[in-house]
Every structure is written in C-alpha cells, then in structure tokens.
Predict the structure.
Amino acid sequence: MLAYVTTIGGIAYAPVWAGIGRLENSQQAQVSDTKAALASITDRMVTQKEMEWRTARGAEDRQRTEGAIKDLRSDMVPRAEHERVWQSYTATDASLQRQTEELKQTAGSVYGQRDINLDLR
C-alpha cells in the first residue's frame, strides 16, 4: 500500500515539479532579459560627470565663438567709411577722365585730323 501511495503521489507531484522547473527557467530568462535591458540602458546613459564635462566644454566653445565674433566685429570697417572711400575713387576717376579729355582737346586743336592726313601722305 505504501508503494502504491508513493507511486500515485509521485505521479501527482510530477506536474508540480515540471511547473516549478518551467517557472525557474522563465524567472532566469526574465532576469537575463532584465540584465540585458539594464545594460543597454546603462550603455546609452550619460553620467553626471560626463554631463558636467559636456557643459563645461559647451561653455568653453561658446566663449571661444563669442571671442572670435568680437574680433571679427572689431576688425570690420563700417559701411559709411567704405562709401567715403568709394566716392573718393569716383572723384579721382572723374578728375583723370576730365584731364584726359582736356589733353585730347588741346592736342586736337593744335594738330588736327587734316594735319595727320597730310603727314601720312
């Protein structure tokens, strides 16, 4: 009778053992999935020290950029000054053109086209 009860108890208890084994396997799978998920999150995570470093680097870059812009602005010449220089160039060109025309007119009145044609013959 003891053997019969032990056998039936073993048969009845076998599915429970299988369920416990599957439960342990699924828990291990969940633990490994959780570890993998945490590892991927940790890989993508930025630490506080790295954030402080990035912030400091950003501040340095911003200071360097602002310094470069300040240098460029200080070296730039205002448009009004350019306009004055361009007007001076235009006045100089007009003066040279006037002088050239005066020389042509003076030379033309002294030694005209008729004289040139006579010399060419």
User: Anything to note?
Assistant: DSSP finds four helices and no strands in the chain. The mean pLDDT is 85.
